[in-house]
Design a protein that fits this description.
301 residues; alpha/beta; Rossmann fold; AMP dimethylallyltransferase activity; adenylate dimethylallyltransferase (ADP/ATP-dependent); EC 2.5.1.112; transferase; Dimethylallyltransferase
């Protein structure tokens, strides 16, 4: 009690509220970006990209960046903004992502962190005192493997080969361990581009098929590794992940697929996020009620 005999309201004040963030996780190709847009158009939100390759400027096809049209006007942070020749580390991500989260929260909007680089997400969550809602979009591996293989074919159809060719400087040694050149779909083309001027059309076609096959295999391996990390975060670190099984969505086409997405992924996610943002637990309600009662009692004296 203070010397004046009144109630010390400072003691009764609740601690500063943690910044609330939604984290959308999942293997490559599962629909994380789609879900983040679904949520950001239902809640006042902005998106922070956590894909360590999509942070780089350029190679939009190879890195499968969300398009301007697909963004639906939702602001995105750390997407295609980093010099493609620089090394963007987990520490760099934590620093820049935390600034983005702080800025978004200060504007009374919800930060949605989305991407497949689970090591970067883990580093951010470990270093920052956030209150998190984790959404995990999951697709069975056999179904996902089929999808990502077809996605690679579509990427080839819309210009992936020329996009990589225009970026690489084959007159010099290329370090494929740095910057955007680490992206799946870049180092696989090295041998093809170096041999291309010296082989005939049939040999070029055969070699290109081998490159595309390598890209598909590497993408499938990436999906498997991403899932292993998610399992570790859930089972070893105890992250409370809301798993959303989108497998049935990928088995359907057109309107049926869209309806399945809304029923199995977008709809449940909206309910989960709504509860995360607006529901107050009984324990917290009890504390708030006690504080209000104490303040009312103090005011009456």
């Amino acid at each position: 009690m203070p010397s004046g005999g009144g109630l010390n309201l400072q003691v009764l004040r609740p601690p500063l509220q943690k910044e609330r963030v939604v984290v959308v996780m999942g293997a490559t190709g599962t629909g994380k970006s789609r879900l983040s847009i679904n949520l950001a158009t239902r809640f006042p939100a902005e998106i922070v990209n956590s894909d360590k390759i999509q942070v780089y400027e350029g190679l939009d096809v190879v890195t499968n960046k969300i398009t301007e049209e697909e963004m639906c006007g939702v602001p995105h942070h750390l997407l295609g903004t980093i010099n493609p020749n620089s090394d963007f580390t987990a520490n760099d991500f934590c620093h820049m992502a935390s600034l983005a989260v702080k800025s978004i929260s200060a504007r009374k909007k919800l930060p949605i962190i989305v991407g497949g680089s689970n090591s970067y997400i883990e580093a951010l969550i470990d270093n920052e005192n956030y209150e998190c809602c984790f959404l995990w979009v999951d697709v069975s591996l056999p179904v996902l493997n089929s999808f990502v293989s077809k996605r690679v074919d579509r990427m080839v159809d819309v210009g992936m080969v020329d996009e990589v060719r225009n970026m690489l400087n084959l007159t010099a040694d290329i370090d494929y361990s740095r910057g955007i050149r680490r992206a799946i779909g870049v180092p696989e083309f090295d041998r093809y581009f170096r041999l291309e001027p010296f082989i005939d059309d049939e040999e070029r076609a055969t070699l290109l098929e081998e490159v595309i096959s390598d890209i598909k295999n590497n993408t499938r391996n990436l999906a498997r590794r991403q899932l292993e990390k998610i399992y570790r975060l859930r089972n070893i670190k105890g992250w409370k992940l809301h798993r959303l099984d989108a497998t049935d969505v990928f088995r359907k086409r057109g309107k049926e697929a869209d309806e399945a997405w809304d029923r199995l992924v977008a709809g449940p996610s909206s309910v989960i996020v709504s509860r995360f943002l607006y529901d107050v637990s009984p324990k917290v309600r009890g504390k708030v009620a006690a504080i209000r009662s104490a303040m009312a009692a103090a005011a009456s004296h």
